[in-house]
């Protein structure tokens, strides 16, 4: 039997302890080695989760930004829509206002047209006549024989409007004043009674002959006033001469207060005006100027064309020797003429006619009627 020494036993114990310690130390290392890949996978998974979270946050931010932009655009569109609506409203209001103004103007015009003339207020339109004339006053007579062919209220005294200018022209023509003398339109010639317009501005310079032409042909008020104002002795003297001439001619139902006819106080009767037409027709200058269809005058650097206020002077059916028209609301539409119809020289007077073209219409009715009378006379003479 072998016996070990104490020293050898001690060495074996140390070796066993070392082995045990090595195994103990190796086991955690192996475990750590096995667990290392799992940690990497966890780190990768965590990174992936972080990336997903970041993407989600980014997506939410983009969505939020889009929503914000959408919300920003929506108010902008609302503002734009509001502005468009406001603009449309303004346009609509402006259009409404324009229509209202037009309606008011039309209403005012209707009121102006509906304003009764002196003849209407006197009931003269209720008087009947065989030709159903639209004028409340009318007179047609043979210039040579003085035979009255038609009369209607011929002694009624009414405003005569621009028929007044026929007397103005007669005095100017008979005064033998220089027709080439230059006259100037001044503020005194501007109409302050009816506020009528004129193409002859203040400062316009025309000869006396041109002023007379425009006054008789196109019824130019400023021209007629300038003729009276520049007459030797002044305007009031001229008006006095107008009344003196009327009395001299036996026009006892006539009075003048100014040379244009804008005042309703310029009044006469068809009987008196027939006398004036007969006398005025004897003046060559008045015949020529009153029946001129149109005339051009140089006003500064412009050429202005004026037309005759009586459209019948341009008609081939008429042979008119002298004419004058007139209109103010108090007088209605007025027309006086000397014309040859069916071989007869006639003087026609129409006052207070209702309707823009009614005075010419009355003249046409008279012409047809006189022509029919001539035909009947010819038939009777041939029997």
User: What kind of sheet is the major sheet?
Assistant: 5 strands, antiparallel
Any idea what the radius of gyration is? 54 Å
* Molecular shape: globular
The portion of residues forming beta strands comes to: 15-25%
Number of strands: 11
Low-confidence stretches: 1-7, 23-50, 66-76, 103-113
- Helix-strand sequence: HHEEEHEEHHHEHHEEEEEH
> In order across it, which strands form the biggest sheet?
2-1-11-10-9
- Going by helix content, strand content and strand pairing, the class is alpha+beta
Mean pLDDT, nearest integer? Answer: 82
Question: What is the CA–CA distance across the termini?
Answer: 204 Å
| SS element count, helices | 9
Q: What is the percent of helical residues?
A: 40-55%
Structural overview:
With 383 residues, the protein is α+β, with helices and mostly antiparallel strands. The chain is built from 9 helices and 11 strands. The longest helix is centred in the N-terminal third of the chain and has 109 residues, at 6-114. It is an enzyme of class 3 (hydrolase). Residues 35-56 are annotated as: Disordered. This is D-alanyl-D-alanine endopeptidase.
What does the secondary structure layout of this molecule look like, with pairings?
Blueprint: H1 6-114, H2 118-121, E1 135-142, E2 148-152, E3 158-159, H3 164-175, E4 182-184, E5 205-207, H4 208-217, H5 221-229, H6 235-248, E6 267-268, H7 270-281, H8 284-290, E7 294-299, E8 302-307, E9 320-328, E10 332-341, E11 344-353, H9 358-382
Antiparallel strand pairs: 1-2, 1-11, 3-6, 4-5, 7-8, 9-10, 10-11
